[in-house]
Amino acid sequence: MAQMYCVKCRAKRDDPKAVKVTMKNGKPAMKGKCPVCGTGMYKIGG
Q1: Are strands 19-22 and 11-15 parallel, antiparallel or unpaired?
Q2: What is the pTM of this model?
Q3: Cα 15 to Cα 35: distance, rounded to the nearest angstrom
């Protein structure tokens, strides 16, 4: 579970289905979806 910031809701949300991804520059990140509004959320360095 990863806690990320949703820019649409303006709140931190937990996403149990978040997945680890690697950005183009090689840095790790977490990618998920807001459970309330469905907006995509990212957390760099996850």
Answers
A1: unpaired
A2: 0.75
A3: 7
